[in-house]
Amino acid sequence: VDKFEGDAIIAFWGAPLKLEDHAVRACSAALSCQRAHIDMNRQFTGEGYPEIHTRIGLSSGYMVVGNMGSSRRFDYTAIGSAVNLGSRLEGANKVYGTSIMVPEDTFSIAENHFVFRELDTIRVVGQQKPVTVYELICAPDELTDDLETILKRYSDALKLYRTGDSNKAAELFSSAGDSTSLIMAERCRKMAEDTSHEPVEWDGVFNLSSK
Fold first, then answer.
1. What is the CB-side half-sphere exposure of residue 74 using CA atoms within 13 A?
2. What would the DSSP string read from start to end of the chain?
3. pLDDT tens digit string along 26-83?
4. Is the link from the previous residue into 16 a cis peptide, with omega within 30 of 0?
5. pTM for this model (two decimals)
């Protein structure tokens, strides 16, 4: 654990000791956090308190890690573009109704250990390079037939969305039925109805407007 910052917890793996499975450990920890919330929320609601919801953004890549600051005040921490991306993906969960989001770099390392859903290709605030993002869903033995059907329909709808076929994509997203699919279906309907400007070539990248 690196630090507590406001209502956020920042943590990293792979330093100071090298860990080849850093992304797998991070994904496992994220899923453990969300599982713990289920039990916590059960207790909270039973005692009359509202449920808590936590969003998690993960990112893998080269970072500067070490003691930062001056001789009078310093902190052992990590900085860099990959660190910033993780922070941006935490917030991006709000757009998709998800709880754990990872970029392609993390997905490519951990894809054989967990179930992921490719969500979209986005451009986060403060970075110009588009990034393909994924939702971390569960461990492989937790995948049900119903969930697998939802993920397949989402994947097929995403392909239509990227070709610019908003109407058909909206129908398929809607048929998936989960909250993230319904959010994407609504986006597709708005894109199909938007005639306020001259049509431009669709590059399949969704630009986030906030952190």
1. 10
2. --EEETTEEE--SSSSS--TTHHHHHHHHHHHHHHHHHHHHHHHHHTTPPP----EE---S--EEEEEE-SSSEEEEEESHHHHHHHHHHHHHHHHT-SEEEEHHHHHHHTTTSEEEEEEEEE-TT--S-EEEEEEEE-GGG--HHHHHHHHHHHHHHHHHHHT-HHHHHHHHHHH-SHHHHHHHHHHHHHHH--SS------S-EEP---
3. 999 999 999 998 889 999 999 999 988 899 999 998 888 888 888 888 888 888 888 8
4. yes
5. 0.88
- What's the sign of the alpha-carbon dihedral 130, 57, 32, 50? negative
Take residue 169 and report the two structure tokens written for it.
């994509």
Residue corresponding to tokens 């070709």: 163
